[in-house]
Every structure is written in C-alpha cells, then in structure tokens.
Specification:
- This protein has four helices and no strands.
- It is an all-alpha fold.
- Helix 1 packs across helix 2.
C-alpha cells in the first residue's frame, strides 16, 4: 500500500471533507481513500470515447444513428 500526502489543501476544503466523512460515519482518511479509489476506478473520458469508437462503425450515417435512437426510445 502506498501513502499519499496532500499539501496546500484549503481550510474550507478540509472542513467540508471532514463534514462529509462524519456524515458517512467514516474517518477522514477512510473517506478520502474511498473517493480516490472510486476516481481511479472510473474510466477517463478518453477511454470511454475510444471504447465507443471501437464498437461503432465509422460507416454509420447520421440517419442510421437517429433511427437507432428513435427505435430505442420506442422500446422503453
């Protein structure tokens, strides 16, 4: 396990994080660790766009995309 130190955090941000940690019945350390782990597990926008591009054919026309969207709306 690694150790991370955060420097120059504003007093306001620290106070808010302490409040949120207390509301979730966690220590500040546990709360911050959870936030960081969730952030690390969330794919970046670039990764999401790359996945979408790999799944969608570049040959689709605008009309095909609109048709697919409309069909999806009708199913719900």
């Amino acid at each position: 396990m690694a150790t991370l130190y955060v420097r120059d955090l504003s007093d306001e941000a620290l106070a808010e994080l302490k409040i949120r940690a207390a509301r979730s019945r966690q220590s500040l350390q546990a709360y911050a660790r959870t936030l960081l782990e969730e952030e690390a597990a969330t794919p970046s926008v670039e990764d999401v766009v790359a996945r979408i591009r790999s799944r969608v054919s570049a040959e689709l026309s605008v009309d095909e995309v609109i048709g697919d969207l409309d069909a999806g709306r009708r199913r719900e």
